[in-house]
Write a structure and sequence with these properties.
alpha/beta; Aspartate Aminotransferase, domain 1; Aspartate Aminotransferase, domain 2; 2 domains; binds 4'-deoxy-4'-aminopyridoxal-5'-phosphate
Length: 396
């Protein structure tokens, strides 16, 4: 009999609810509040077409050849400059260009995780990170930075690394406060543990001044060599189809991740890299950001107003000050949001249930609602449908 392939075991671990809500996009007329997608009308397609034309005619060899594994030097320099502060001193040796932020997560798993190794992860956490690390079958130590008794040093000790999304976490949309960021950095330094700062939403602050990045807090004025591994991405601030992400880390870590990347995709698309560099050089990214912030802030307000009208009997939530999601927690601890998802699909809407974001798969009490993809009237209608589904679940 044919031997069962190794990957079959970890595919079996994928939660059924994950599969169900990934398939939900196919239902006609469904208002999908479950995903995490930007609004495609905001992609600056025409400006990118002009830049792509210039890239292909002026520097076709850079755009069409294999690129260096670690990325084009000029793009790495531009990113080093973008993140440099008085305390955080960076050169291109601190930068690796990746194929989306998700590749950074996958490479970190390849480099740092032993089979069954422990990860201290902010909980609930990003589903894609759980997917990226699933082949190593890690064990998870949940970190809840907003708990009163949270002790970062206890959380990190003995783990292969710690993982956080400090700006507008996916799924909760919340910020990790500055004092907790500083405590996490200090704990990473004192325990000698790597700390992954995953930051695809860092540009999406709508109402407040950005909090300091953990990698900034780890800078000491000397060439950066600290324990924070920072992951950035163009997906939420420009366009996910470019598949451009980056890692900023100690040169020793960048060298290891580069070796891992060689066996993954050889290099990130040269065309996308050249386009990204031209985007930075022409300031296109800075020009599109204000429109993104204005549209998403208005949608967040519309979503929260609709939730106020329809969902208060069932859920509590906080209005987020940025990002793409509202996290709503059921008032009744026995309310089951996996069941709610089934009822919501019958009512032709869809939200993400908390079970898919819990590394231990146990949380059934919350939902993640996205506000960036749909128009304000669609958001209101989606929430009205969700209230119908809540009623159905409640009557059981
Ligand atoms: N990290 C987090 C927390 C995310 O939410 C996402 C995208 N949903 C990513 C990483 C990866 O994004 P990308 O690969 O498109 O850069």
């Amino acid at each position: 009999m044919a031997k069962r392939p190794a990957f079959a075991d970890w595919l079996d671990d994928t939660n059924d609810v994950t599969r169900m809500f990934l398939a939900a996009g196919q239902i006609p007329g469904l208002i999908n509040l479950a995903g995490g997608l930007p609004d495609p009308q905001l992609y600056p397609a025409r400006a990118l077409a002009d830049l792509a034309h210039a890239a292909l005619t002026e520097t076709p060899q850079d755009a069409l050849n294999y690129a260096p594994i670690e990325g084009y030097g000029a793009l790495r320099d531009a990113l080093a400059t973008r993140y440099e502060t008085d305390k955080l001193k960076l050169t291109r040796e601190n930068v690796l260009i990746t194929s989306g932020g998700i590749q950074g997560l996958e490479l970190i798993g390849k480099v740092l995780l032993n089979e069954g190794g422990a990860i201290a992860t902010q909980t609930p956490t990003y589903l894609g990170a759980l997917d990226a690390w699933r082949p190593r079958r890690p064990t998870y130590r949940p970190m809840r930075p907003d708990a009163n008794d949270f002790d970062p040093a206890v959380a990190l000790r003995g783990c292969q690394f710690g993982y956080t999304v400090p700006n507008f976490s996916n799924p909760t949309g919340k910020l990790v406060p500055t004092n907790v960021r500083a405590a996490l950095v200090e704990a990473a330094q004192s325990t000698g543990t790597w700390l992954v700062e995953d930051d695809p939403y860092g540009a999406l602050y709508y109402d407040e001044t950005p909090l300091p990045r953990m990698i900034e807090l780890a800078g000491d004025g000397a060439p950066y060599d600290g324990p924070v591994i920072y992951l950035g991405s163009l997906s939420k601030e420009l366009a996910p189809g470019l598949r451009i992400g980056w890692v900023i880390a100690a040169p020793e870590m960048i060298a290891k991740l580069t070796l891992a990347k060689q066996g993954s995709d050889m290099s990130t698309s040269g065309l996308s890299q050249v386009l990204t560099l031209r985007t930075f050089e022409t300031g296109l990214d800075a020009r599109v950001l204000p429109d993104i912030l204005t549209l998403y802030a208005a949608r967040r307000d519309a979503l929260c107003a609709a939730m106020e009208t329809h969902l208060t009997p069932w859920f509590d939530w906080e209005k987020p000050v940025g990002g793409m999601f509202v996290w709503a927690v059921a008032r009744n601890p026995d309310f089951n949001t996996d069941d709610l998802l089934q009822a919501a699909l019958r009512a032709k809407t869809c939200v993400s249930p908390s079970s898919v974001f819990d590394p231990l798969g146990e949380d059934r009490r919350a939902i993640r609602i996205n506000f960036t993809l749909n128009s304000e009237p669609q958001l209101a209608e989606g929430i009205r449908r969700l209230a119908v589904a809540c009623q159905e679940v409640d009557l059981r």
